[in-house]
Amino acid sequence: MGKGAPSLSLFLKPILLKHSEKKGYLDKTIAIIGTRGIPNSYGGFEYFAEHLSISLVNKGYHTLVLEPAQELISLDDYRGVERVPVKVYKFLPHPIRKVIYGYKSLKKAKRINVDTIICCGHTPALFFPFFKKSFLKKTIVNLDGIEWKRAKWSFVAKLFLRITEYLSIGWSGTLVADNKGIEEYILKKYRKETELITYGVSIPNEIAEFGLLAAKGLVANNYGLLVARIEPENQIELIIKSFITAGKTLVIVGGISSGYAKKVYKNYSYLPNVIFWGGEYNSSTLLSLRSYANLYVHGHTVGGTNPSLLEAMACGCRIVAHNNVFNHYTLGNTGLYFDNESQLFDLIESCWNKTENLGSAAKLRAIEQYSWDVVTNKYIELIERTENDIVK
After folding, report:
1. Rg (Cα) of the chain, in Å, rounded?
2. Do 119 and 252 lie in a common domain?
3. 117 lies in which domain range?
């Protein structure tokens, strides 16, 4: 087959199964849809798709991750996971591309005749009413956070997200909440039961290097760290102002491409103790940043179990987090909480010079509750149960 030609394995289940048998996979194919693809170079759902798909492959499941592409070209597998392109034209506005991608992903999964679909987010749910119930029974929708509450969305976007949330609740085969707070929200608002399966996290086993950080002018145990998308609901400016008042250095890891991020960068980047690191997806660099931070600050106010919080826990960071139900269910009593700028300032002041390792309990909690092996086994149990229900 010539370079650039679409692979038949994208369309024909018999070939997929033959391919999987050669690799020693179980006779089951799982498709993960709704992300920008793997390896992760964006955020939460991509992080989830990358780690869960690899874990499923390691446990014997033939796993596909669908991703938007301008051309239907054959993509290289990633650590045993088959990457499947879904053609979406780049010239279309991003919201339209996302909607079309959701629809085409469902169609492709149906054409391949996969055994289970794990849908990341509920945008594809807009098209659920156009598919047969027998197909929808295969879908497991990971609801993520309460998306329509995010401050960045316009009225129209929030309305769209509320509609797709409603459709996902009513039409999907199975619902997954990644946080107890989401589970309670769905039960209260829709009187619908969900499966509670959190995100997972890899526990670091290597020693972090400090050389790169030193080259950037950082001093070990003398800076605060924030890893997040630079968006209003993540309390970015509140955190910056607290560190400015405390006279401490803050490193902000996050892309600076959105309008809001550019505004924050313009307003604070001139300050010597506010360092905008930019987007960072190198795991070794992130491990170093977390390992040598004095304090990790988590400002997320909307969403479920956040991967950046889990990774801070896995690194044994001393954590202060925004005081809301989602962070409480994730972090428990292994961190400290703030509601406003004044409270965060007080926590920075009181924690900065403490020598005891306040993050050891957070790391233990990550190991016991959030390892990818634990999370993957829960998904496998759900997948097997869902398939048995379909057969019945």
Report:
1. 21
2. no
3. 8-200+371-391
Number of folded domains that form the chain: 2
Is the torsion defined by CA of 149, 152, 153, 154 positive or negative?
positive
- Answer positive or negative: Cα dihedral of 34, 39, 42, 44: positive
CATH code, domain carrying 241 = 3.40.50.2000
Over residues 313-328, the pLDDT tens digits come to: 999 999 999 999 999 9
| Cα dihedral across residues 226, 230, 234, 236: positive or negative | positive
The larger pLDDT score, comparing residue 260 to residue 17, is at 260
Clarify whether residues 229 and 173 are in a common domain.
Answer: no
Q: Do residue 12 and residue 150 come from a single domain?
A: yes
pLDDT at residue 20, rounded to an integer: 41
pLDDT digits (tens, 9 = 90+) for 356-388: 677 899 999 999 999 999 999 999 999 998 877
User: What does the pLDDT average to over 294-311?
Assistant: 92
Tens digits of residue pLDDT in 72-131: 888 999 999 999 999 998 888 888 898 999 999 999 999 999 999 999 999 999 999 999
Report the amino acid identity of residue 93. P
CA atoms within 13 A on the CB side of 74: 11
Q: Are residues 63 and 189 in the same domain?
A: yes
Residue type, 188: K
Same domain? 356 vs 375: no
Say whether both 120 and 51 belong to one domain: yes
Co-location of 313 and 385 in the same domain: no
Distance from C-alpha of 317 to C-alpha of 319, rounded to nearest angstrom: 6
Query: Mean of the per-residue pLDDT values for the chain?
Result: 88
Report how far residue 295's alpha carbon sits from residue 312's, in angstroms, rounded to the nearest whole number. Answer: 10
